[in-house]
UniProtKB/TrEMBL annotation:
Statement: the UniProt record of this protein carries the keyword Metal-binding: no
Species per Swiss-Prot/TrEMBL record: Rostratula benghalensis (greater painted-snipe)
Annotated protein name in UniProt: PCD23 protein
Record bears the keyword Repeat: yes
Keywords in alphabetical order: Calcium, Cell adhesion, Disulfide bond, EGF-like domain, Glycoprotein, Membrane, Repeat, Signal, Transmembrane, Transmembrane helix
Database matches in Pfam families: Cadherin
Upper lineage: Eukaryota, Metazoa, Chordata, Craniata, Vertebrata
Length: 675
């Protein structure tokens, strides 16, 4: 008892049911019962067989709710046309089934109550009725009996009498149909209808497409005649289809008829207008009156009718207000005079066209307009005058200035040519293309320090409008001139003994340079080792720096009384240039030195027998002065009272004039004066 349907009393062994039993589920139950005495390990068992007795609780059930039978109207009586079959889960008489026709529309049929076989009782050829509905009941033999019937609303058993196929199908549906091109796949386009007056299969019509559907655009339901789309339609690819439809009945032999079905695909605004060019480029002249034709844009729309009727316009953008577009023709004209110098390129990204569909579709193209130049502007220099400074040592061919004149025009109208119209004394030239001014010869500020001339800028048009500017070129000095003394050699004399700072000489040097290059500084280059002289560095005045002593001159002498100085004149340029001049200074003697004897005393020893006329000695004195100031005269001023001696006044030679007598006078002291 795996399902626990029974229980047993443990003391009395009474078996009882716990749940409802079902004969159809289990008709026999075998229980194993075990008995045991006390706690004894010995037990015994037995089997109890229980048969579940059937009751009539299940009605007969047909396997199908309805059925259909087709017979020829020529069948003879007694022909079995249908076998009804029902099942009953009960057993015995409860499951035995009897069949009957519950509702008769005709006496042409009978049923075997045991077997359920439906037979013809007579021929139906003469009957106008071509379809019969039999409602068959199934009843078991239980008590009470249970019944199941095929209900009328479920058609029960339908017996159709076959017809003779003597009529061809006849189309009743229109041979013309319309469909929008944007319908989805599976959309019902047309209902093909053909009628066949025959009955049964002879009047059952099927439909087929014979031709015109090569691209498989449509599907025709062969039973219903519903023509639907099999793929998306596109009127722009194909705007109509001509389908040859055939309607065929199911007779034998089958009869058919054809119809030419025309399907017109109606336009939907599904095509965007397309410009013939994505970019329109053209040129238009400047300074023309408004209304000047510029270009024509054109677009195509593959739709039809209003969906393909286009309107053109310019969308707002930079410079668009200077143009106007004809909305019908797409012609673009100017609304104002154009100025290339203000705007040369008009890149209008919003030239648009739209169709008149609902909703409208549109597209855009780009217009690239170039304004052509006219020579309506003169060349113009940035300044009316230029002043520049250049060094005079600039090499020939050097560029000193790149002039630039702008011309707002374009092309030849804006190509500037440069020229000079004044005399530059052969010093300058200008490159006619670049405007570069170059030197054509070596410059010399000392010859010409400034140039003024005019430069002209003209364009290449036939009208030759031009512009001028004044050029002032200042030549900057370069230290290229050496200072020059007025004399290369100076001679000057000065008395000795003059006080310091006594002016001796003023020298002059000239320098053709200017500025610092022409500023001269004087100095003593050599010959002034003891700083005997000084010179004013700015004025060139040479003066004594000490008291001159004619007698002290030694190394500076050309002659005994001269100084040789080398003077230097230097400019202040970088690098500095200089030149020299020689000054010979003669120091004039002043008689400021007395004669000086070579010895203050002379000691002479002679014999008294020396003859008269003999040379005794010679005195000598020197004088640092020169000239007559140094001419010495000697004289005996004492000690020669008796005339024994004779002194040569010029040579200092002392001779004996009288005989000497030792015994008379043994010593003579002569005082000799040198003047």
């Amino acid at each position: 008892d795996p399902h626990g349907r029974f229980s047993i009393d443990p003391h009395f062994g009474i078996i009882r049911t716990k749940n409802q039993l079902d004969h159809e589920t289990q008709s026999v139950v075998v229980l194993t019962v075990q008995s045991q005495l006390g706690n004894s390990p010995v037990y015994s068992s037995t089997q109890v067989n229980i048969s579940v007795i059937d009751i009539n609780d299940n009605p007969p059930v047909f396997l199908t709710q309805s059925d259909k039978v087709i017979i020829s109207h020529t069948q003879p009586p007694g022909t079995a046309v249908y076998i009804a079959h029902a099942e009953d889960k009960d057993s015995g008489l409860n499951g035995a089934i009897k069949y009957s026709i519950a509702s008769k529309q005709s006496d042409a049929f009978s049923i075997d109550p045991s077997l359920g076989v439906v037979n013809l009782t007579r021929t139906v050829f003469a009957d106008k009725q071509q379809e019969y509905a039999l409602h068959i009941a199934a009843e078991d033999c239980g008590s009470p009996p249970l019944t199941s019937s095929l209900m009328l609303d479920s058609l029960a058993v339908k017996i159709v009498i076959l017809d003779i196929n003597d009529n061809s199908p006849n189309f009743t549906s229109s041979p013309l149909s319309y469909v929008m091109e944007n319908v989805e796949v599976g959309f019902l386009v047309h209902h093909v209808i053909a009628k066949d007056p025959d009955e049964g299969r002879n009047g059952e019509v099927t439909y087929h497409i014979l031709s015109g559907n090569e691209n498989k655009a449509f599907v025709l339901d062969e039973i219903t005649g519903l023509l639907t789309t099999a793929q998306l339609l596109d009127r722009e690819i194909q705007d109509r289809y001509s389908l040859t439809i055939v309607a065929v009945d199911d007779g034998s032999p089958a009869l058919s008829t054809t119809q030419l079905l025309t399907i017109v695909v109606l336009d939907v605004n599904d095509e965007t207008p397309i410009f013939l060019k994505q970019l329109y480029e053209t040129a238009v002249r400047e300074n023309q009156d408004p209304g000047e034709f510029v270009l024509k844009v054109e677009a195509v729309d593959r739709d039809a009718g209003l969906n393909s009727l286009l309107r053109y316009e310019i969308l707002p953008g930079a410079g668009y207000e200077k143009f106007k577009m004809n909305q019908d023709s797409g012609e673009l004209i100017t609304t104002a005079s154009l100025d290339r110098e203000t705007q040369e390129i008009f890149s209008i990204k919003g030239s648009s066209c739209h169709d008149l569909g609902s909703p409208p579709r549109s597209s855009t193209t780009q217009l690239y307009l170039t304004v052509l130049d006219e020579n309506d502007h003169n060349p113009s220099f940035a300044k009316t005058q230029y002043q520049i400074s250049v060094r005079e040592d600039l090499e020939e061919g050097s560029a000193i200035l790149d002039l630039f004149a702008s011309d707002k025009d374009d092309g030849l109208n804006g190509e500037v040519m440069y020229s000079l119209i004044d005399d530059t004394f052969g010093a300058f030239a200008i490159d006619s293309v670049t405007g570069s001014i170059v030197t054509t010869k070596a410059l010399d500020r000392e010859t010409k320090s400034q140039y003024t001339f005019r430069a002209v800028a003209s364009d290449c048009s036939t009208h030759l409008p031009r512009s001028t500017t004044v050029m002032t070129v200042l030549i900057q000095d370069v230290n290229d001139n050496v200072p020059k003394f007025e004399q290369n050699y100076y001679r000057v004399s000065v008395w000795e003994g003059q006080s310091p700072k006594t002016d001796i000489l003023q020298v002059f040097a000239t320098d053709l340079d200017s500025g610092l290059n022409g500023e001269i500084e004087y100095s003593v280059l050599s010959g002034n080792e003891n700083a005997t002289f000084l010179i004013d560095s700015a004025r060139g005045i040479l003066a004594t720096n000490t008291v001159l002593d004619h007698e002290s001159i030694s190394s500076y002498r050309e002659m005994a009384s001269s100084h040789r100085l080398v003077l230097l004149a230097s400019d202040h340029g970088t690098p500095s240039l200089n030149s020299t001049a020689t000054v010979l200074i003669t120091v004039l003697d002043v008689n400021d030195n007395p004669p000086v004897f070579s010895s203050t005393e002379y000691h002479i020893h002679v014999k008294e027998s020396i003859p008269v006329g003999s040379h005794i000695t010679e005195v000598s004195a020197s004088d640092h002065d020169v000239g007559t100031n140094a001419e010495i005269t000697y004289a005996i001023i004492s000690g020669n009272d008796r005339g024994h001696f004779h002194l040569d006044g010029k040579t200092g030679s002392v001779d004996l004039m009288k005989t000497l007598d030792y015994e008379d006078t043994m010593k003579y002291t002569l005082v000799i004066q040198a003047t």
